[in-house]
Structures are given as structure tokens and as C-alpha cells.
Amino acid sequence: MISPRKVSMEELNRLSVEEYQIAPKHSFVFVLDDIRSLNNVGSVFRTSDAFRAEKIFLCGLTGTPPHRDITKTALGADESVEWEKCADVLELLARLKTEGYTIVALEQAEGSTQLQDFAPDQNQKYAFVLGNEVFGVNEEVVSQSDICLEIPQFGTKHSLNVSVSAGIVAWDYVSKTLKS
């Protein structure tokens, strides 16, 4: 039996920042609305890099690079992933809809779609909206969304960390669209 060994950084053969920026992306963006923790913002940058998201929109009070707390958790992804600061999330969502995006709020809501039942269309673009760590996605944003997507939970807590939610949804989306 062969015992496993850890793969070296060189063997991983990752893209350079320049190669990443011109590489094809998956058809989704993240919209971060009023995210207080700059560490969460950095983590979403890192996740976006890992799954080749098109872009991150930083709305409301969400902090922006350059900032040491974002950089600390992004580990350089704040330089590879395209991002844009938007003051008004509702204006952004209206713009994204005109650009052909389906707006998906990650929220526990009446009539929400459970993540395991989410069947993304490979030919559709998606904007996944992540809300404030305490209050979640704003009610006005929920009402402007095409889908409310809920990650099933089985413990005592009512929610997941926002960056953990981003990772789960990005993996789910990419794994489902790569199969089709």
C-alpha cells in the first residue's frame, strides 16, 4: 500500500495572478452587502479565486481592499479577483438583472429553495447575495431576488458564517455546472 504524501506548492501548478485574470471564469458573482468583518471579506476573495468567480461586489458598509485584515485572509486573492465597490445594493441588483443575472439571496425565507434542490442552468449567470453577519440579507434585497437559497442546517445555530456560506454555495454551483 502506498502511503499518501502532501503535494508541494510547485506540484499544484497554480495560475499566476496574470494568468488567472485572463482565464475563463464561472458564471457567478458574489454580492457582499453590509459585511462587517474584513476577515470575512478576505475569505470570500480567497473562495472566489479558488472557484474562479467573475467578480465580487462590495456593497454598503462592506470594506474594500487594500486593508491588512482583508489581505491577511485573502492571501493575495484581493489582487487576482476583480471587485467593485457599490454604495447602493438595490441599484446594483437592478443593473445585474439587466445584464442577465439571476439574483440569488442566501437566506432562510418562506419558500426558499434548499441547496440540494438548486439546479443551476449552465447557460445562466448568477449573483449570490450574502448579507450582514447578524441580520442576514436585507428584506428589500430578498424581495428583489429571483431565488432565496437556503443551506440546510441540523444543529442548534440559526446560521453559518458568511464566508463559510460563500464556500459552500460556490462549491455547490461549480460542481453542479461542471457535471452538466
Automatic annotation (TrEMBL):
Pfam families: SpoU_methylase. The keyword Zinc-finger does not apply. CDD domains: SpoU-like. GO terms for cellular component: cytosol. The keyword Phosphoprotein does not apply. GO terms for molecular function: RNA binding; RNA methyltransferase activity. GO terms for biological process: methylation; RNA processing. This is tRNA/rRNA methyltransferase (SpoU). It comes from Runella slithyformis (strain ATCC 29530 / DSM 19594 / LMG 11500 / NCIMB 11436 / LSU 4).
